[in-house]
Amino acid sequence: MPDWPALLAFDAPVLETVLRGTVVFVAIFLLMRLTGQREAGGLGISDVLLVVLVAEAAAGGLGRSSESLADAILLIATIIAWSVAVDAVAYRFPRLAGLLKARPRALVEDGRPNRRLMRRELMTHEELMAQLRLHGVTDLDEVRWAYLEPNGMVSVIRRDGGEPDGPERPEMP
To answer: How far apart are CA 73 and CA 61, in angstroms?
Structure first.
């Protein structure tokens, strides 16, 4: 039979748990913000950060490494609160959004690759071409704009106005 008072009591001081959650969230957020957009895959940096931190915080409460569920729940609540706060500040104060949230950035403009952005994102010419081929583009001259989106994906606007909306599908017989 579980000892409910012990499970629901705090092992660590509440302020310490909130402070630890805050420091870890801010540190990882800044590090991920500095590493670039491509590393996030199909998710935004905030999404990846939230999933990783909540999973780690919940692990202590799920296992026997922590006697208190209250500590794990408070840590999870702190992490989620910071994630919501970052989104709310970016929404409420658009000038800060550029610091807090990634923006789409031009990877190709009028057929010319943005080499500076490619260097920052550690993207080779071959990787750029592979992304364009996924959109049915085989020549840079076909591209008016290609953007590196906040979720790490590449979107393409063709010169001819065609719809490069995804990988070309083979025709069915």
So the answer is: 8
Burial class (CB in 10 A: 0-12, 13-18, 19+), 131: buried
Q: How far apart are CA 156 and CA 149, in angstroms?
A: 10
Q: Which two tokens stand for residue 172?
A: 């069915």
pTM across the whole model: 0.57
State the Cα–Cα distance between residues 109 and 157, nearest whole angstrom: 10
Instruction: For tokens 């702190």, name the residue.
Output: 78
Q: State the amino acid at position 148 in one-letter form.
A: L
Top-confidence residue, 157 or 7: 157
Q: What angle do CA 150, 51, 80 make, to 5 degrees?
A: 95
Query: Per-residue pLDDT tens for 14-59?
Result: 898 888 888 878 887 887 777 665 555 556 667 777 778 878 876 7
